[in-house]
Specification:
4 helices, about 230 residues, 13 strands, about 20% helix, three-stranded antiparallel β-sheet
Length: about 230
Amino acid sequence: MNRPAITQPHLVPVTSIDEHLPAVPADLLTAQAIRARLAALSAWTPEFAGDGGLFAGREPAGAAVLVPLVQRETGLSLLLTRRTDHLRDHAGQISFPGGRVEPEDDGPVATALRETEEEIGLSRSHIEVIGQLPVYSTVTAFQVTPVVALIEPGFTLQLDGFEVAEAFEVPLAFLMNPAHHRHHTFEFAGAERRFLSMPWHGGEREYFIWGATAAMLRNLYRLLITG
């Protein structure tokens, strides 16, 4: 399937907002509650399994990302990155730290930890891995394993300037409230395409969280709200 990249997702019309769905209660957004929910996870079908198609000529490849939940005094926040604008894939997009599985990696957790350290300089001494979400298939042919982790404050980041333009945090409660989940729909070559977004206004900048990142966050929402 030959699918063009969506270069201006913020311009794609919003067709619906999930205001009718409940937010995850505060008592389920604690480190202890999320750790327990992931530990009890068994067979589960995610709401979003993938982007729904592939660019032509791409062979599937393994990848892993870290879903880093920073334990702030005000509650958990999610640490995200904004990619640099010159990258071949996902240029300028909001992403979890992570990347392709390399032969020396001992599974997705090793990949997520290595890539996080390389991309943003987050030391493993501040990271406690607490579980994984279902594999997500991207349009760029990556089979992505989201690795959920708690992050102890007091860390210092050192960004890889080639890949990462900036790192920032978003309150987890904001992302786990469907009133902030927007559905976008458009047509290309006679077929309908859809994606989810969760725009976040951080200071003077709007961070347009969309695509695979938003879909994996929506899967986390479904896991927590049905726990």
